[in-house]
Amino acid sequence: MMCGNNLQMRIMAENIVGDPGAGDDPAIKRYNSVAIQYENLLEKYAHVLGTTFAGIVNFEDRIAATVLASRSDVQKGGVACMGLSGGGMRTVLLKATLPAIKAAVAVGAMTTYSGLLDAHIICHTWMLYPSAFAKLGDWPDAVACRAPSPLMVQYCEKDALYTLAAQQAAHHHIASIYRSTKSPQNYRGLFYNVPHQFNQTMQQDAFAFLDTHMR
Hints:
Elements (H helix, E strand, L loop, with lengths): L5 H12 L8 H23 L4 H18 L8 E6 L1 H12 L3 E7 L31 H6 L6 E6 L7 H17 L6 E6 L7 H14 L2
Helix pairs in contact: 1-2, 3-4
């Protein structure tokens, strides 16, 4: 999606700034209203340079995770990653592309592509749209492609960024992939009756999952 005029950019900014997950901090709202206008420009530059915004972010995350896993003060056998929203999308891509990721938790970052069309596609980062990926699979396929490696996905039922139906469809698709690997227990999808957030209960569930699978 490209924004061709200032009106479209303002609509995008209003969607992001109005997101309850952004909080009430005026500085965050000001940052979002500006950043949303420049991400499209960054994606254009990335395409001219033969890459994508999602690819650049993922490349940097893979470097960071590789350095972490190589440290002498980090237990051998792999590292875990976890993130909310844009961080959740980075988690999806990092888990898909780096075997050193032993387990992952993606929070408020899962949908089907068809569920984004029309009302929901406008307010999402380019990290959700790796170039031409939709020709190969759906967004749930990206996070599940390394099944049976342990995965938790936390879904916010009142998330303004996704439809509940699209989240449910993504959950069922991921679960079917893990069943096909005969390791359904390695995937856990949890739904919370909350807006876009990562509250204390969700954090406790996430860390308990990682504690179990990172031993």
